[in-house]
Amino acid sequence: MCRVYAVTRGGYYAWKRHAPSRRAQADADLQQRIARVHRDSRGTYGSPRVHRVLHANGYCVGENRVARIMRASGIKARVATLRYTCPNLRRFFGHIPNRQLEVAISYPDQVWVGDITYLKVGTLWRYLAVVMDKCSRRIVGWSFGRHKDARLTLRALNHAVYNRRPPPGLIFHTDRGIEYAGGAFTQRIAQLGFTQSMNRPGKVTDNAFVESFFHSMKAEAFHGNRFDQDQEVVGVLRRYLPFYNRDRLHSSLNYVSPMTYEQQLP
């Protein structure tokens, strides 16, 4: 070995007896802290969020150093490139405008956004409807079911209303799917005194906040796992959604969780 690396035998044994440097010892301690934060995040945090957690806990370290140690240790955020199955053509209702664009959001329960996504159980599709508070990105209501219809979206809406008790005048924004534009749903919106809002035709980015949530949820909690029973999916949702609301650091909220963000508002 000494010949291969062109070092003397004495130099090799001196290096072997040499204690790790203070920098190496500090890196080893930091690696353990990083691994703990990464584990507590369920493997979802990359270096920016890990750095934020360490900083919040009083550990002074640079983000580049955190990223270097994570690369060297093979610690990665759990992310995935997700493919979406295009749903059938939806019915459009042009008489409902996008009213959320008219509002400067400054407090919770001012604008809610709703949407539906697909989750696979065995070889079949199941559906998840959520309601998000646009101010804090907090999931305030949800419903899981076998059918993508107004009953699913109504359950999610009623769950949100039960949890938050919002005042009349709230703007509820969704895409233009029949699950939100049908009579039963619009009647419930009117009964609550809410104002209905929908995407502009062809502007799918109008509901980007909840789409971003779906991407994060699937990448962090569902990608790479197989589910054979509905109860398994419900179990994951019941664990992930409280984690997302209470603990997961949100980059657009200055790296605090949705619940913490609400608590910090004046």
Structure write-up:
45% of the residues lie in helices and 14% in strands. It has 266 residues and is α/β, with parallel strands linked by helices. Strands 3-2-1-4-5 form a five-stranded mixed β-sheet, sandwiched between helices. A hairpin with a 4-residue loop joins β2 (124-133) and β3 (138-145). α3 crosses α5 (63-73) and α4 (47-56) crosses α5 (63-73). The chain is elongated, with a radius of gyration of 24 Å.
List the helices and strands and how they pair.
Layout: H1 2-5, H2 9-17, H3 22-40, H4 47-56, H5 63-73, E1 111-121, E2 124-133, E3 138-145, H6 150-164, E4 171-174, H7 178-181, H8 183-192, E5 195-198, H9 208-222, H10 230-246, H11 258-264
Parallel strand pairs: 1-4, 4-5
Antiparallel strand pairs: 1-2, 2-3
Helix pairs in contact: 3-4, 3-5, 4-5
Give a short overview.
This protein is α/β, with parallel strands linked by helices.
Q: Which descriptors apply to this entry?
A:
single chain; 266 residues; alpha/beta; Nucleotidyltransferase, domain 5; 2 domains; five-stranded mixed β-sheet; 11 helices; 45% helix
Strand count:
5
Using the 3D structure, state the CATH architecture of the largest domain.
2-Layer Sandwich
Contiguous uncertain segments of 5+ residues: 84-94
Distance between the termini: 66 Å
The level of helicity is: 40-55%
CATH structural class of the largest domain = Alpha Beta
Mean pLDDT: 84
Query: How is the largest sheet built, in terms of strand order?
Result: 3-2-1-4-5
The overall number of domains is 2
Hey, roughly how much beta strand do the residues contain?
5-15%
The CATH homologous superfamily of the largest domain corresponds to Ribonuclease H-like superfamily/Ribonuclease H
How many H/I helical runs? 11
Shape: elongated
Give the SSE order as H and E letters.
HHHHHEEEHEHHEHHH
